[in-house]
Amino acid sequence: MSAHDHAFSRTVQAPAVGPAPGDLSALQVLRALDSTPRGLTEAQAGERLARRGAHVLPGLRPPSRPARLWQSLRDPFTAVLFCLGLVSALVAAWGTAWVILTLVAVSCVLRAQGEHRADRSMDRLRGLVATTASVQRRTAPDAAPRVREIPVDDVVPGDVVRLAPGDLVPADVRLLRARGLTVHQAALTGESAPVPKEPVDLPGAGDSAHLLFQGSSIASGTGTGVVVATGADTRFAAVRTAGRRTRTSAFDRSVHGISWVLIRFMLLTPPLVLMANAALRGRGLETLPFAVAVAVGLTPEMLPVIVTTCLARGASLLARTHGVIVRRLPALHDLGAVDVLCVDKTGTLTQDRPAVDPGRTDAEALHWAGASAWWTLQTAEPADPDPLDEALLAATGPEDWEAYDGVDALPFDPVRRLATAVVREPGALGTHTLAVKGAAQEVLDRCALDPDERAELLRRAAGRAADGVRLLAVATARRPARTRAYTPADERGLTFRGFVAFHDAPADTAYDAVRALAARGVTVKVLTGDDPVTAARVCRDLSIELTPADVTTGERISGLTDGQLGELAARTTVFARCTPEDKARVVTALRAHGRTTGYLGDGVNDLPALRAADVGICPRDGVDVARESADVVLAEKDLTAIEHAVVAGRHSSANIASYLRITLSSNLGNVIAMLVAALLLPFLPMLPAQVLVQNLCFDGAQLALAHDRPDPAALRRPTVLRPRAFLRFITGFGALGALADLATFAVLALCLPGTLAPHDEAAFHGGWFTENLLTQALVMLLLRTGRRAAEGRTPGPVRWAATGLAVIGILLPLTPVGPLLGMTGLPVAYYLLLAAVLALYAAALRRATHTCAHAPTQ
């Protein structure tokens, strides 16, 4: 039994049903389960099913829609907006309160609906899992047993099940009988090679060669065993429910950081406004609605809606065009921020099956190995194809098989490690040919070779194995024709024909996917339970450059502190012989080292790493529990879809960053100007109703940012929303906007000689309202990431939205609605001077964006 098998056995406790099957004989297990080698009776099985319930793994029940809405509301920025809405209602600012609470509700509903759609897509994937088992039962205690197919849900402890090649192990099983049985348990341990299993009667401590675990499948041979655990008592279920995710994602960290910066601003603004007006202007609580309006003016109240809309659109597009299901909407942003993708080799980078390596295979050996595989399957009883036989048949053809007639076969035996087909060659009357294939040592020991020649061939075999390939040695022998059966004693005096080499076949799209990710600035690291030589070979097949220092093993990882592991993980490409805990430690260390990390895996052994990563990804063919634990599921096993998902994540993140840049810099400039004007003027610089209308217009226009096309440069590198960088950005551009507002005040002073007089209040409001919307339209055009991509093209949604905003800013004070809002028009000279101010402001914005257009996301 492999070390990985032992490690998996130690991961969880023994099943709760009956005794620990690893320590007892087969007879003791059967007695403890009140069963026999003939199986249960239908009555016994029905009684146990009624008492214990169906054999169903503990479900990860999706939250209800009310629960999803509550989870959306718990987002810190959404919660702050909700509180601002309540405060607005308390100070009788009903319009502001209604707008804010509506935006909060829309955001929560959009997010909950998007995640509900993802869960429904996952439900459709679950229907792809096999659901039956071959069970041996009796109609009465003295009746003969019959084997029939029953739903897996109806399997109970004590049932005797029969297993054949290709079967999924339906529950935890203790072997009673086996013939050439090997089990493919990559989903549990990460091993690509099948693991031999045998019915050990008196197992040693910790031995599990006689145990089959749910989640594995039969690679070759046949077996009969008794079910010892079902449902929540299986080891599969124990691993499934262990180590729930507790970490915060990259999206959570970035948005929360930005949110708390803004929260501090918003909490400080109302008291400052109240104190300044009370001290300098003698105004009291009557300025409270204005103070709340100023705080709301600083707030990017559309942020939850913009974020949810961008992510939901990206997730919907991925599902329709690339078969990628985003189960947790913020995971799409995390994909855009990923700069390290850790992958499990078996089943993700590789096809989970071997393939013949023609460059290291002898042609004559391949011919005879193909003939041996074909005629062994044709004449053996029963025929047990294994992955190597399938690879041989795929690499050869009828021209290698059909020239012979099959006579007899000695199927593969894990003890002698050989398989032999006996065939009759054309024209060879009176003779039979034995075509023998198997492990190099065993085949060469049976060949007629001198010791030096045998030693040289073993050195050749070792050299090829060191290059990451598995070898079959092939030999033949002619024997006089006979009618009696052939035996292993006939496998002597063989003529050596050569070696057949196998390597793990890369997934069809793995090569293109690795290259595409590298072009996007995403480093691929391999974390596998397989041996380092095999893992390195797969990397070379995918053109991943390696040096000896780029490969390490789980044994070395276990002796490192978290800090040392972080340094090692940053410079290492392949981590081999990793336990599930090793994989999780590597992922956690990379995240602690400042890397945004994704993990692609499909087995139970990948669960801890999937949960530790910023974003967990699982192919559709992964085990059910891995799909449920992943944030993103590839509905089609096309690894290039990951690159499309990364681009979609960066697309969404770039548009979210655009919104934050635009709204925060514009709002901060307006708030600074508003505070200055409040101290200089004998009246409020802007009425609460005017603030509300301005915000509604600006917010409505900014919805177009969710449909913008980002600059291609923003998609070539990971996108991270960094709070400190955003703070520097909005401070600089906010100050620039405040200067434009102060210049507008000067223009108003020129055009309205009595600007500081109360009777000019409506004209001042109208002039500043127009300037505010025009500067906001400029900011939308010049600070978005899609500006360069859009230049010279047909106007897109952002240009149309900015144009509409500018038209409203100019015309609204001149319409009958203007006086109702406390605004009037201004002389033509004002608009001419304002145009000059806006031209200077636009030139300053263009100059500034040349050096720091993308700074907040890097």
What is the overall pLDDT average? Answer: 79
Regarding quaternary structure, what we see is single chain
Round the Cα radius of gyration to an integer and report it.
Answer: 35 Å
- Architecture (CATH level 2) name of the largest domain: Up-down Bundle
**Broad CATH class of the largest domain:** Mainly Alpha
By secondary-structure content and strand pairing, the structural class works out as: alpha/beta
Give the CATH H-level superfamily of the largest domain.
Calcium-transporting ATPase, transmembrane domain
Poorly predicted ranges: 5-19, 125-130, 787-792, 853-858
Per DSSP E runs of 2 or more residues, the count of β-strands stands at 22
CATH fold descriptor of the largest domain? Calcium-transporting ATPase, transmembrane domain
Strand-residue fraction? 15-25%
Give the overall form. Answer: elongated
What is the makeup of the main sheet? 8 strands, mixed
Task: Describe the protein.
- The chain has 858 residues and is an alpha/beta fold.
- It has four domains: 171 residues, Calcium-transporting ATPase, cytoplasmic transduction domain A (Distorted Sandwich); 287 residues, Calcium-transporting ATPase, transmembrane domain (Up-down Bundle), CATH 1.20.1110; 166 residues, HAD superfamily/HAD-like (Rossmann fold, 3-Layer(aba) Sandwich); 146 residues, 3-Layer(aba) Sandwich (Calcium-transporting ATPase, cytoplasmic domain N).
- Strands 1, 2, 3, 4, 5, 6, 7 and 8 form an eight-stranded mixed sheet that branches. It has an eight-stranded mixed sheet with strand order 9-22-21-20-10-17-19-18, with helices on both faces. The protein has a six-stranded antiparallel sheet with strand order 11-16-15-14-13-12.
- Strand 12 and strand 13 form a beta hairpin.
- Helix 12 packs across helix 26 and helix 28 runs antiparallel to helix 29.
- The protein is elongated.
- It starts with a helix and ends in a 6-residue tail after the last helix.
